[in-house]
Design brief:
Layout lengths: L1 H23 L4 H22 L6 H8 L1 H15 L6 H9 L1 H9 L6 H4 L5 H14 L4 H5 L1
Helix pairs in contact: 1-2, 2-6, 2-8, 3-8, 4-5
């Protein structure tokens, strides 16, 4: 389980770096939609290829939940203890950089009332990839 926890956090950081590079090239809505598709498929593919099934649905979910728990705690803290001009919330949005790009490209309010609900995205899609592998649909078997 520790392996999955560490790998899921590393995958999240890699996806953030990829998101940052794509956001640096612009925030056109088409580019952001492409980035979101890459983010979602990246989580599912990395979860399927590199994570190990734990034996049950709950154990699989628990093994990838660290990334979202960190985001939830970070978001809750920055929401409860706001700073002047919303700097604290920018830390949360930095942890979910692709969401910042999404709200920026579509001129939505990046405040907590809208963006906080996205904290579960990494764990949800890592878990989907892991569940696909556990149910016999291994992408790594297809790639070789």
């Amino acid at each position: 389980m520790t392996r999955n926890i560490l790998l899921s956090f590393v995958f999240h950081m890699l996806i953030l770096v990829m998101s940052g590079m794509l956001l640096a090239s612009g925030n056109h809505p088409v580019l952001i939609i492409f980035m979101m598709l890459l983010v979602i498929s990246g989580y599912v593919l990395l979860g399927n290829i590199f994570l190990r099934p734990m034996g049950s649905v709950a154990a699989n979910l628990l093994s990838v939940s660290f990334v979202s728990v960190v985001g939830f705690i970070l978001g809750l803290y920055t929401w409860i203890f706001p700073s002047m001009m919303g700097f604290n919330w920018m830390i949360f949005l930095g942890y979910y950089l692709y969401i910042f790009g999404l709200v920026d490209a579509f001129n939505m309010n990046p405040g907590p009332h809208f963006t906080f609900c996205f904290f579960a995205i990494p764990s949800l899609f890592l878990w989907i990839g892991l569940q696909l592998k556990a149910s016999g649909y291994s992408i790594s078997g297809i790639l070789t």
